[in-house]
Specification:
By secondary structure, the protein is α+β, with helices and mostly antiparallel strands. The protein has 11 helices and 12 strands. A hairpin with a 4-residue loop joins strand 3 and strand 4. It is extended. The relative contact order is 0.05. This is Stage 0 sporulation family protein.
Length: about 450
């Protein structure tokens, strides 16, 4: 969903608001909290909560105290207190929901570290802020070139200017400790501003930059996920997933955060399953678990030495055999438990999707056109009323050059004797004339 500022231009090309998902219209921003109390008024005698939530570049948020009781609403650009100078941000949440968010993130009120809001940003503040934002991309390219020249094992992922353009924060990722003292000196000479280097993790880098996951949706960390919990390979094992690092890793190169989403449901379902390391002892032999199906609640066991023959059991049957083994009660075999699950099914390969037969070209195709044409002629002749049929033939030249006379033949009337009609000499054979001797 995009806001009105992200529409297309006059020529049809995408215009965009150039905020990269951080605009204040609640349409295309990141990590936005919906203010469902916006249309509700406070009770009489109760003052509004004097803290507001302000968002900066790439979803970075902070909470500021509004001591001067400035009337603020969502989308207002404000000048906030910083360590040195001031910063420019956008108001994203006001009212009682800010109190809930601060309690959720365990941010205390009225502490010495609490920052304040100075004023609403003037046009001069906005011009300085936008000019500094336009310098960030070419500065990032130049900073990467300097880091490569100094052969530092680090990656500069993003640069963020302070609102008054007095300081630039360089976000980088690195596996080991980096000595960037020489790097800061060259950055200060090159960019003529105060430099702050801040190391972030790979997950935080993916959250700042954003992207599309293997599921086809935007990354969870850049849209709604605010806390990063540790993800281990045991989460994939409990869900019966193949331990393929290419499929389990996300854009950040770490294990996907979504592996933890359904882990609790799988853990609850596995409580009724026996441990896969537990062996089943029967009179026929010792059985070892080969496979489990969490959704159907089934387990497959195979005897030692007969690894190709699997026997399907339910969780109740497996637990019953394990209980009998603990009590040292004899169990005949797994077949007597597996026979209860055998259901005779008839396989029907009916053509339900309208596909052609695979053997349609095996038999030669017989043409029934002649038979059909004969049947049509007979049916037409039976339906027509009987009438006089005249047959005329054109003059036909004989071998001697003469012409034969036209002959007409009337159909035989009903009741007329056969002897009264002229014989038809058409089918008679002509006498063979002997050839003259040469």
């Amino acid at each position: 969903m995009a806001c009105g500022n992200c529409g297309t231009g006059a020529d049809g090309s995408p215009k965009g608001c150039k905020n990269n998902g951080t605009c204040g219209t609640d349409g295309c921003n990141k990590l936005t909290v919906f203010d469902w109390l916006s249309n509700m008024s406070l009770p009489e005698g109760q003052e509004a909560f004097n803290y507001v939530e302000v968002r900066f570049k790439n979803g970075r948020k902070n909470y500021y105290k509004n001591d001067d009781k400035i009337t603020l609403s969502i989308g207002d650009i404000v000048a906030t207190q910083a360590e040195s100078g001031h910063d420019i941000g956008m108001v994203t949440l006001t009212g009682e929901l800010v109190r809930v968010q601060m309690k959720r993130k365990k941010i205390k009120q009225d502490t010495p570290d609490t920052l304040k809001i100075y004023r609403k940003a003037s046009q001069r503040d906005i011009d300085i802020w936008t000019t500094a934002r336009e310098k960030e991309e070419p500065m990032k390219v130049r900073a990467r070139q300097i880091a490569i020249r100094l052969q530092l094992q680090m990656k500069i992922s993003d640069i963020e200017f302070q609102g008054d353009a007095s300081k630039a924060t360089f976000y980088y990722t690195a596996e080991d400790r980096v000595d960037f003292r020489q790097l800061i000196k060259e950055f200060a000479q090159e960019f003529r501003t105060r430099i702050e280097m801040r190391q972030i993790g790979l997950r935080q880098e993916a959250a700042r930059l954003g992207g599309i996951g293997s599921c086809g949706r935007e990354l969870c960390c850049s849209t709604w996920l605010t806390d990063f919990r540790s993800v281990t390979t045991s989460a994939a094992r409990y869900q019966q997933l193949s331990l393929n690092p290419q499929k389990l890793a996300g854009q950040c190169g770490k294990l996907k955060c979504c592996l933890n989403y359904e882990l609790d449901a799988y853990m609850d379902a596995l409580k009724s399953f026996p441990k896969t390391e537990t062996k089943l002892y029967t009179k026929k032999g010792t059985a070892v678990c080969q496979k489990i199906d969490i959704f159907q609640g089934r387990l497959w066991y195979a005897y030692e030495g007969e690894w190709m023959n699997w026997h399907e059991l339910t969780t109740d049957h497996a637990n019953e055999i394990i209980t009998a083994n603990r009590k040292k009660e004899p169990v005949a075999s797994l077949e007597e438990f597996a026979s209860e699950l055998i259901v005779e099914t008839t396989v029907d390969f009916g053509n339900v999707v309208g596909q052609d037969s695979l053997t349609r070209f095996d038999k030669p195709k017989t043409s029934n056109k002649r038979r059909n044409n004969r049947k049509k002629k007979r049916s037409n002749s039976d339906n027509k009323p009987q009438a006089k049929r005249t047959q005329t033939k054109g003059p036909k030249k004989s071998k001697q050059g003469g012409q034969k006379a036209k002959t007409t033949q009337k159909p035989q009337k009903e009741g007329q004797k056969q002897g009264g009609t002229k014989p038809n000499n058409r089918n008679k054979k002509r006498p063979h004339k002997p050839k003259p001797n040469a």
